[in-house]
Amino acid sequence: MDKAKRKAIIAGNWKMNKTPKEATALLNAITPLVADADCEVIACVPYVDLAAAIEATAGTNVKIGAENCHWAESGAFTGEISTGMLKEVGVEYVVLGHSERRQYFGETDETVNKRTKAALAAGLKPIVCVGELLWERECNITEEVIARQIKLDLWDVTEEELKNVVIAYEPVWAIGTGKTATADQAEEVCAFIRAQLAKLYNQDAADAVTIQYGGSMNDGNADELLSKVNVDGGLIGGASLVAEKFAAIVKAASN
Ligand code: 13P
């Protein structure tokens, strides 16, 4: 499939930044700058910001995502948020399996898979993050790591459900470090991810999946990264907190 036929998606991952009031101010700054975007624009924000973010983006082309969700419908899971709670406030996307969750909060491929299945069943669109550690890249097992994550994280996800899945390739060594993967490195792994999807599903299904790159993507390097045939968008951390920088990345994806 031609890259132009895939949905380009630029998503901000705000991580643990911005209070509800600050979220409203940032989104009020972002929305006019991206109003004519020719790609999907998403802001994934902390749970307590969701209501304010949904209100601030009502009637605009900016969609709102959460940064995680639990797999159970309800119950004794202190500190967790269900898919039903997210749906009711108007959330459309949810980031799952982010390396910070894997690294600091014990997230495993098994729990990423459970969350992904639950999100899909609830009608949310998961942005499933995969990526290798620096040590794994140095040991030359990047493909092994990515293949395993893709297989396990998407275990039991049907071809029909895959249409609502976005994959984000985020090499862990490039997150928040200012070290971006080169456009060729990003393309190589995004193409590998697509090949894995083709193996697990089929080529048509794989060709239709939006694969984002994330890791120090900014207004200076977005053009080159997004010019690659298998890089269909970006998952942006730091630069998504600055309206002008985020808007410039959206513009790069719209070209
Ligand atoms: P940075 O853009 O700050 O490197 O973060 C990337 C990221 O983790 C997005 O999910």
Brief overview, please?
The chain is an alpha/beta fold.
Notes on the protein architecture:
- Helix content is 42%, strand content 14%.
- By secondary structure, it is an alpha/beta fold.
- Helix 1 (20-33) runs parallel beside helix 2 (50-56) and helix 1 (20-33) runs parallel beside helix 12 (243-254).
- The model has no long low-confidence stretch (mean pLDDT 97).
- The chain binds 1,3-dihydroxyacetonephosphate.
Give the strand order, joined by hyphens, for the main sheet. Answer: 1-2-3-4-5-6-7-8
Quaternary structure annotation: single chain
Total helices: the number is 12
Associated small molecules: 1,3-dihydroxyacetonephosphate
Helical amount: 40-55%
How are the secondary structure elements laid out?
Layout: E1 9-13, H1 20-33, E2 40-44, H2 50-56, E3 62-66, H3 83-89, E4 93-96, H4 99-104, H5 109-121, E5 125-130, H6 134-138, H7 142-153, H8 159-162, E6 166-169, H9 183-200, H10 203-207, E7 211-213, H11 222-226, E8 233-236, H12 243-254
Parallel strand pairs: 1-2, 1-8, 2-3, 3-4, 4-5, 5-6, 6-7, 7-8
The protein binds 1,3-dihydroxyacetonephosphate.
Residues 13, 98, 170, 175-176, 214-217, 235-239 line the site of 1,3-dihydroxyacetonephosphate (13P).
